[in-house]
Each structure stands twice: as structure tokens, then as C-alpha cells.
Protein 1
Amino acid sequence: MSLIERLAPQEVGFPLPWARPARNKVRMSDALLLSMKVNGEEVEVAAPAHFTLLEVLRYKLDLIGSKQGCDKGDCGACTVQLDGVARLSCLTLAVQANGREVRTVEGMTGAHLHPLQDCMDKSVAAQCGFCTPGILMAAEAFLTKMGRVVTRGEVAEAMASNLCRCTGYTKIVDAIVDASAIMAEGKN
Amino acid sequence: MLRLPVFGSKSPTSIEELVMAIAEPGARIVAGGTDLLPNLKHKLHAPTTLVSLDRVAELQRITWDREAGLLRIGAGVTLTQLAEDAEVSKNFSSLSKAAGLVASPLIRNMATIGGNVNLDTRCRYVNQSEFWRSAIGGCLKSEGDVCHVVPKGRSCVAAMSSDCVPVLISLGAHLVQVGPEGRREVAMADYYHSDGIAHTHCQPGEFTAEICVPIAKTPARAAYGKWTVRKSIDFPLISVAMHFALDRDAADATITEARICLGVLAARPKLLKVDALVGLRLNDPTTAELVGELCFKQGKPLDNVPYEAEYRRKMLRVFASRALRDLLA
């Protein structure tokens, strides 16, 4: 049991999704058994039909890297990849990810930093860090799709879904352009 | 944190299963979910079942039906697919541009053309959280019984804010609707009502399967102009789509047929009366002036989306002439 699951709702002070079954009238028997591949690992998880992919990732699978920001598709903090395509997990129903491959920022943990992570670090492109998981997921999908060195203008257009209130974007764009050079070089 | 209301879900894999699934009471279609899910999180609808289109492969194709002279776009085609399709962009640059201007890249990765055509109407007083709406007692489209846009108004004037709809109307497109009674075709110009609450002629148990755009037989040029607060993420404040059939493919060609459609005025996109343009030369300065004048005279925005109606009306002229300029390039 994770730390957040052990917290009783009254200690948190705001409604936790698992503390509201009575009000939502959800019975466990209504839950659907979903199977998906999350960061390369086959996962089976039970969740009601009205859960978003983000809620399943964060509250059922404990993958709290993807952030819950605006929760209505404006901020991009919840960006994940579904079958290699970047999308907003707060507006994706968990059942839509059933049988598919999900990649979250947790999938970027390995012995070595991903070129994007390395460049984000070197350019100091993360300040508070709340938008960073979403930026990494959106940027990785974008660079994989382009497969070449990208321009600042292309980055600005491709990353228009992801809001950052700290950096002013300049350093994020620097990092993505640098990473595109490293990733394109690695391919050749 | 915004919670979705409780509902069940179905994921049909064929058109037949889909027809059966949405025939059930309380069923509603979800395609990309980028418009429906925020509305559900704001408690604007309460469906009992959401029927997802994402596994119906038949709806996810773009086909060129040369025999019928139509481009057939499946309702489940995402806006990214549509905007990045090289053939579509070559033949229907205005449609490709409009699809590529919708919201933000991630939303376009999810949102579908079928959803964009059936996009719910929007209003600054209704697309708000339940808590926000409770402060003004709701409105005709939500919990209340008054209109905050038109005082004493008895019908909803929420705006059709889709980018692709005015363009598709200007291109003379039609929809293929599939329901329990089979298939029927409906011209997009006749598909929309002026009632912001039930703004389409979509019958109960019916869904849009295909969007068909006629391939122009004569030389033609089309353009789309959209004004937004920011460069990305936003719905249009006003939108202008225009299509001109020409006697030859050149900037100084003579207009043989013109269609101009304005969006974001009210629930129904407005197809303008533009007979005066026929016979004029495309690059004639008086043509540009007349196009701006026609848009300004016939387009009457309301205070249903951000920015003042009067200001938006003046900008119709600006964006119409900018769209026309794109078309001469």
C-alpha cells in the first residue's frame, strides 16, 4: 500500500477519489478490468469506466510523474504517449487505453539519462518542475516523429500544448533543439 | 481536480455494433473526448453510457472517391492526420489549414473531424465550472432559465466555434449520417440549427460516419481566417472561410462562383449572400473591399464569447481581407 493510500481522507483535507465511493455510487463490481502495457510492463488494473487514464496512472498504479494540472486539456502537464502518440491523459478515458501501450515519464528512467533529460538539465530548463514530465513526453514524441534536427520555430509550434509558468520557454526550446541534434546523430 | 460523473462505457469495433450501442437511452458518443470530457467534468451533461469510436477502424480512413468526385473523410480521422495529409493539403488547403489551427497539437492528436463537425456550441456563460455557473444561477443551456447574452432572450445563442465547419460549408461538403434507419446524406449548410441547445439535425441514435467534400471540377481557390486571443489553444473569436470558383487558376482570374461562411456568430454558421462578387477579378482591390464589407454588413457577432461584439464585428473585415490576401499569394 502506498503512502497516499494510507492517508485517511480527513487528514488530507480534500476529497480523494477513493474516499468518495458512496457519493459517486460506484461499486467495485462496476469496475472494468483493463490490461495495458505501461512503460514496457504488462499491467492489469481494475477501474470504473468514468476514470481517466491520468486517474488510473496516478491513483491506481502510483505513477505520479504525470501531473494533474488544469484537468481539462489546457496545460499539458498530464501528457503521456499512447502507442507512441503524445496525448493528454486527463482527457483520455482509461478504457480507451485498454490493450494499448502507454509511456509515461517514469519510462525515462534507466542507467543513462535520455538525451532530452540531459539537455533539459544542462540548459536549466526545469525550475519548479511541474510541467517537466509533460514537456518530456510531448518533446520525445515530437523528436521521434521528426527524426532530424529541428528549428526553434518548429519546437514552439509543436510544444504549444504545454504551459510552463517559470522558465519563459527559452531554455526549454534550447534543450529540445540541442536534444534533437543528439538524437539525430545517434540515428545516423 | 475535476471529477467525471459516473457512467458506463462501450467500445464497439464495427459500425453495426456502434449503431446498436448508441440506440440505447442515455448513450452518447465519445471520439477524441477533448470537448466532451471537459463538459462532463463541468457537469453539463449526464450520459449513462459513453460509446467510444476509437476502435471502429472503418471510421478512420481518408479515401479519394474519384468516381463520385468526393474526398471521403471518416469521422474518426484525427485533426492531426487531416492537417498533415499531403493530398488533402494540396487539394483543400483551407481545410488543411483550419484542421491544423484547432486548439493545440496534443488536442489535435486526439480530437477527430467527426467531433469537430458535431462540436457542442460554446458560450462564456456555459463553458464554466459548476461552481462558477452557480454564482449566476446558470443559463438556458445549463441549470438556469435566463440568457445572459441576450437579456430576456428565450432561445440559446451559444456559438458554433468549430474551425472546420465554416470551411466545410464553404467547400459545399455533406455528411453521411448512419442510424437505425440506415444511411442518409445531409448537406452541411443545412445541418445546423439556430438553437444553441440542440444545434444540429442529428437524429436520436444517429451518428456522423463520413464527411464528404466535393473535388472541384473547375479551378478554385479557398482560404480560412481565424482570430484568436493567443496563437494556440484557443477557440476562434471570429472565423471566415471562403471559396471561389474561377475561370482559370491565376490571381487575376474572374470569379464564377463564391461562397463565404462565417463562424462563431451564433449556433448556426452563416453562409453569406455574395452574388455581387461573381464576375469580379480575384486580385482587384475593389473585390477585397467588397468581401470585407459583405462580412461586416451580414455578420453580427453577439457577446457570447470573449471580446466585445462590436470589436469582433470590425475584425471580421480585417480577417476577411487577410484571408483573401493569403489566397492571392
Note: Chain B has eleven helices and twelve strands.
Protein 2
Amino acid sequence: MNAMNGWFKRGAEPIAAAGPQVQFDNVSLQYGQTRVLDGIDLTLSAAEVHALVGPNGGGKSSLVRCLLGLAPHRGTIKLAWPGSPGQIGYVPQALEFDRSLPMSVIDFLAAMQTRRPAFLRPARRQRQQIVDALERVGLGSKAERRMGDLSGGERQRVMMAQGLMPEPKLLILDEPMAALDEAGVAIFESLICELKTEGVTLLWVEHDLAAVRRLADRVTGLNRRLLFSGDPAEELTPERVLDLFSSHPTQRPKKILQRKDQKEMISD
Amino acid sequence: MTELFEAFRVTVQGWAEAGLLPSSLAYGFAVNALLAGVIIGPVLGLLGTLVVVKRHAFFSEAVGHSAMTGVAIGILLGEPYSGPYGALFGYCLLFGLGLNYLRNRTGLSADTLIGVFLSMSLALGAAVLLVLAGRINVHILENVLFGSILTVSGVDIALLAVVALLVTVPMLLFYNRFMLASFNPALAQVRQVPVKALDYLFVVLVTLVTVASVKVIGAILVGALLVIPAAAAKILATSLSRFVGLSMLFSLIATLCGILIPMEMELPIPSGAAIILVAGSLFLLSVLARSLLPGLRGAVT
């Protein structure tokens, strides 16, 4: 079964899945009296690029936090790896950073990546790994720059580079494009395609629906509850996009409400 | 260890008598004090970089000030005037751990909570000190409050060396993880960094260093040497290695000058005050250098 799952047909050529299948089973999250997530059932297939969309405050980042084990959720989240468990990478939302901190990009990534104190120069092999990761995000020439001298978009790319070390099999991106400039977006998109061919499972929180249509294999709409999940071309219809971003969590449009209720009946 | 130390002291005293070193080093206690400075200075400088990066300056100051109360309680309980280490360590640790425990549980910002705790601790310290004033000559306390090099004994040096080791080893082992935890706790946890445990470890490290430095720097000013050299280094440095290197160097210069200058010039200044004045001067010079040399402002060239 696992071996079968390991091969997916995408277009004409099959891709070996390196990443896990991720299964959310009735995941709920409550902070005090506020229910942030309500009975989320969702499966991310191995080696797919899965976009998570929804209004602000709809629980996208909370779902990510649950998956990372950072939030006290109810329900279960299962990772089914094709082989032995691999590395999980995480790229958080834009990093707040003390601009006056005397740290070069290399220092910063060495602090993330190595045990040897970052104020000692990193060993040659580790330095090479860091420079390689920086080159993948188009920042190879800025390795010695101070973090504080980078633009917001460049800093976001450093965070991407961080997510690539060590080589992840499951990569979780929380609005990675929010701060990116045009060059950054192009690099980011080619990187996602590259990771796709490597069979990495990607969970990607995103606002830019055009980018989701271009890059994602599947898209899930989330507003406290699961609204829809499927092929971006089919799911992201103009009226649904309007619904998704104009509706209040408590006043869901009828169509989606019905769909949700059906789903509940099945899962109950 | 002690034999090595004795040999070192005799050598230094010999050189001082021969005129190779400042003449005050001909005294045994001066060598002791200098040795204490050499041990504790760089450790404070190194830990200080983390204090500054983690924005824990106010916290470290508060732990330092709590040392005063610890000293007062220790003497009240009958510990020796020159080194009430038991109560000192116990009280500082309790203060730091309690503060850290409540930080995540009151919903107050760290500076508010520290403000509350620091005031309470100082009030308790003042109360105990005044009770003591009726029983003993309070001038004895000056040594512990502002530092004195006259009272640094061989035992103190050994204690300092052990503490320096106890603080430096975990600091080097966890340096990167301390940094990562302060940049982005969520990312740190994903990368298997035990963020909360490290917070407590940090409290313990600051407490250990504080207690060990009380002899030389004094309870009132010990927190300052965790902040000032690192702050000065941060102004001048352009990379992490320079930041750490300069911080350790400034801290060492401050402790050495603060100990030697009053002796050489026969000034009746407590060593703690002298050390912090030197550190403060280095800080002001750094600020001046930054405003005069545009390259230091991190300008992209």
C-alpha cells in the first residue's frame, strides 16, 4: 500500500513521493472561549502542493501551528511517511528582526543550522551548505551582508533558505510571498516547482489566489471550518472567492453551509 | 590547581617588585583581585551578548539588584559578612525563577512585571538592611554592595573558576539555540529547541554569574557589566564574531582597569564603581566612534 502510494501520476511523468501524507482528523482548537478551528478533516496527499486559503483570522496559521505541534489541539494529525520519517521544514511569516543586530546572513543561518556557536566561523562543509541554500533563493552574493541591511523581501528569502536546511521532505510555508518583491516571487515559484519534482509535500498558506491557481495541486478554503477542498481550477470560482473573503465566520453563505453540513453528517 | 595559582602569584609579585608590572601587584591581594577580574570579565562579556540579543537587560539588572537583598538576608541569618553566598545564591535564583515563571502567566509585559518585582525586592532589602544597621557596623556591607578587592581570597578565586566553567560550557553548547529562541520561538520549537527550558537555564546562568561577581563588582553594579560591554560592542560590530569578541574584550578591559587604576592612583574608590565607570567610558567612546566613522553604522558600501 505504501509502495503504491509512493508513486503519483502528475501529468505524464510519475514522481516518487519523498514527503508524507498528512491526515487531519477532526482537529479543533480553542483559545479560552474562542473556537479557532472546528472539526477539521483534511488529507494532504504525499508529494502534493497544497494551498491553504481563507480570510484573516480564519485559522490558517492556527492549523499550521497544530501540525507543527505548537498548539494544544483536539483530534489527531497523522503523518504517513513513504519510508523512514524525514525532515520537516517551516518558513514562518515575515520575521521581526532587530535591524541593529550585528549579524551577517551567514551568522544568522549558522545559528539556525549548526550547534557550533555561530560567533565562531562555521566549518567549511556547513558554510558550503548555507551558501548553497542561499543560492537556491538567489541570495548567494549577499551571504556576508548584515541581516539588518537586507530588504524585507530579501529577509523573507533568507527564511526560505532556512526552510531548505536540512533538506525537507515536508515543507510548511506560512504566507511566504507576503513580503516578496517581483524577483523574489519568480524565485519562489521556480523553487516550489523544483520541490514538487523532488516529491516534497508542501503545505502553503497563501493570499495570492492567482499564484495558488498557477502552482497548487490542491486548494483548501478555511474559515474556522473547512469550506472546500479540491482542484484550484474548479474550487476557486469567482463567486466562491468573493464568499471566502467577504463572509464573516458566523454568517457563512448558504451554499457552503450546506456542503459543510453534509460533510458533518458523513463524518459523524 | 592551588599550587599553580600560588606559583603564578609569586611570579607576578616578583615581576612587580622588579618593576616589570605595576607596583601595586607586589601585594598578594592585588594579584588575587586581578585574577578574579581576568576570570570573570570575559564570561560576563560573553553572557552579555545574549542578554542584549534576548533584550533581557532589565531582567539582568533586576537579578543583580536582588543580590543586595540576598546579601542582607544572608547576614541577617548569620552568614559571614564578606561572602554570604548561601542566601545570595538562593535568593537571586528564587527571584529570577519566580520572575520567569510568572512572565508567561500574568499577561503582563516583561518590563512591567520586572518593575513590580524589582521594587518589592529592593523594599525588602532596604528593610532588612535597616534592621541590620542596629546590630552591626553597616560600613562592612559596603564591600559586598560595591565590590572590594581586599577581600578576594584563594577560595573565592577557585569558586570563580568553577562558576566560570559552569556558565561558559552551557553557554557555548546552547548559544545558537538561545539566539534562535529569541528570534522566533515557533521556528525554534520546530527545530527541536526546548524554548521554555532554555529560558530557565538562562536565569540560572545569569544568577550564577551574578553571585560569583559580587565580590569584585558588588551587588549593586554587577548587572551593569552584563549589559554595558555588550551594548558598546553592538554599536561597533558588523558581524556576530566581532560582537562577541569585542564584548568579551571590553568586559576584560573594564575589570582589569577598574581593579588596577584605583590601586595605582591610590584612589579610595570601590572596585565595582571603578569597573563600571571604565565600562561606561568605553561605551561612550563607542558611541562617539560610531558618529565619527560612517562605516560603523552598517552603511552598505
Note: The domain at 44-297 of chain B is CATH 1.10.3470.10 (ABC transporter involved in vitamin B12 uptake, BtuC).
